Amino acid sequence: MNILITGSNGMVGQNFYKNLDKNKFQVYLTSRSKCNINLNNYFFQSDFENNNTFKNLKNFVNPDIIIHCAAMTNVDLCETDKSRAFKINVESTKSLLDTYYDKKIIYISSDAVFGSKDNNDLIDTPNPDNYYGLTKLKSEKIILQNSNNVVVRTTPIGFNYLNNSGFLNWALSSLILKKSIKLFDDVYFNPIHTSLLLKYILLVIQINLKGVIHINSNFKYTKYKFVKLLASFLKIDSSHVLNSKLSKANLVAKRNKNQILKLEKSENLLRIKYPDVNENFLIILNELKNNNKLKNFLIKN
Ligand SMILES: NC(=O)c1ccc[n+]([C@@H]2O[C@H](COP(=O)([O-])OP(=O)(O)OC[C@H]3O[C@@H](n4cnc5c(N)ncnc54)[C@H](OP(=O)(O)O)[C@@H]3O)[C@@H](O)[C@H]2O)c1
Fold it and tell me: What is the pTM of this model?
């Protein structure tokens, strides 16, 4: 089976590539910047802000499945540059759909499609709080124009190995360096490690599920509590990890205090139980143990 991953240099895309079984799948990648893995024949550099890129991408690869991860993900930037956010997140999703209309697209959406109210179940009507969430919701609707496609609402976490950015890199490098950091103790989430997320996406493909699915973990912690628990699991001192409040922060885009995705209906659809917090922590521990370069990368960059 041929799989194309868009946004392959991003945190999620690079981890999906890393974890896909190359004996089972021929994996093609596309991203805006150069490929950081030695994969010349299977990588196509494409800027989705350029409309011509989709025709060239189609000439390059005609996959069975597309996992669409590319997006403008900086929530505050999306708020201040709405036209660019619309072009990258919404228009390019439409172009991708038109380019590969007869193929199955798995769209990586977000908890951000839901607003602050406690109505974040599969059957609830999304109502985002900020422009990023609105672009993700508009893209979901575009993707579902083909009833064969899948929208995966999720909150992925994982290490970014290509540049030292993102939640987990920031949290771990601060823990290792004993740098004082503040995390919101009034924002709840239930993220899932990218390798577990991929496992469930492969199940979605295997059973040919269609429509919307929530894929996250079975816990509800604030971001502060999550990092404190992770530190304790990894046996790292976290006395320098302090709590703060979203309600007192002055951010450009509005954030949602309740970023939990309700999971029960999706678990029933897949006939599985999503992972608990320790399953996620164990993967992080093993990554830190088994990858000698990772620790240095986290503290040097
Ligand atoms: N990480 C999270 O917390 C989170 C939470 C919920 C949902 N999601 C969703 O998960 C998906 C992946 O997120 P991520 O964390 O991997 O984001 P990321 O690290 O910011 O990566 C985004 C990717 O999109 C690519 N991209 C951006 N603009 C592009 C353009 N004009 N043309 C082509 N490619 C472009 C980037 O390419 P280059 O790097 O090559 O420039 C990058 O590979 C996104 O759809 C996001 O909305 C993420």
Answer: 0.97
